[in-house]
Protein 1
Amino acid sequence: MRDDERIWAVRKLLDEYVRSPSLRHVRDPESIARLSRDIVNRLDGGNSIWRKWDAKREALVRSALPCWIPIEDMQGFLNRMPGPQLTRVDVEQRLRAFEEEEYFEHRNQAFEKGCLTIYRREKAKGTELTAIVGLLRDYVQELEDRTRVEERERYREIQNQKRLRRGQLLASGADCNWSQIEGFPNWHCRKNGRTYRLSPSKNGKWTLQEVSGVQDTHVGFPLGIYSSRREATKAIRTLAYA
């Protein structure tokens, strides 16, 4: 690989890496290790078993991985680049090899229709395939970000429903897991018909007491002091039947 190709290949990898919106990902030691392996593998392309592929061809295919682009169009564009002619199988199997490596992106089936719609629209306008790939990557990134937000919202809603259900069980007198009812700072649970209150302290510990109900504000002798609700829950499994 010539020096200018090596520089272009490394710069391409670095550009893709720093596009991550997450600083935690950019600084993550495991992510940095994967990037290092990518750079070494790219520079060591002369020893690759894929003899028809140079750095520029591989960079384009890697960039297109999360997108949905017709194989025949990708093949035709690659064959107009310098290098040996590629068959459809060449392109399909190189894509597959990249996808099977754990640190490469995988295409989301849910994005296929939107990607192909954009691709056909831009192709009809005469937009170059390289530019379309960039546009599709932005489109896929936007969808992935939106999907993550929607999943977080769904998770919060599910947790909200669970919290309300626990509060209803607690108010009805039924056994239930830990619940924090609005207006009360402490956590309550009921086991074997007995109600327990767990109060946080300044040192990060939790004080466990048995109470008559959620409205009971009496501060009596603690049943125990624990480092987490999980520890208190284990203790209650015994205390509730004592």
Note: The mean pLDDT is 84.
Protein 2
Amino acid sequence: MPTDDRHCCDDAPNADRTGATTESDAGGGSGAPVDRAALDVDLPRDLRRSLEGFLGVESVTTLREWAREIRRGVGGSITRSDLCHADAETDHWGELDGERYYFACFYDAVVLAALADGPVDVRTRSPEGTVVRARAVGTDELRARPERAVFSLGVAADATAGTDGPTRAETYAAVCPYVQAFPTRAAYERWAASVDAATVGLPLDGATAFAEALTR
């Protein structure tokens, strides 16, 4: 997710590192066509309220509207310079044309695919320690392993911002710790019940739809 520059994520909470080394042995995902209709489904009420309070807007009811507000915050569509690259190795990376890019937030690797000309191999680790992988091709296809993997989007319950709206760094601190990938919906639900944030869980196979909304 976007930040003020490539190093401003240093002040945000660190990614969870449980030390677990469980690798999923599930097969590749179905690679079904991306369901862009999910962008217009109403978000959970608690997430809508948290987003509206944090962003200082009257209404954010769908993922499409949330993406619009993120683009407004960065002054236009997200570009590669908006991604939060990490100088050191992290649990979240994407490989494009043989080059590995480490990120503070796993979703930036999905956004990278939306911005790239070639496929991106995504690898992340869930809060419980399970490795989740995906292969994203532009904004049209994402094959997740395990195929039932989901990802979360959310915002901290106590997130606050100035009267002019949140800065990119404030957005990172409030949102990105709650953008995670999980091997199953049950794993997401256990995590969601343990964090002080409003979240929504979505199929990882459809993750590129939101990325497309951020970059187009």
Note: Helices lie at 45-55, 63-74, 107-115, 168-175, 185-192, 207-215.
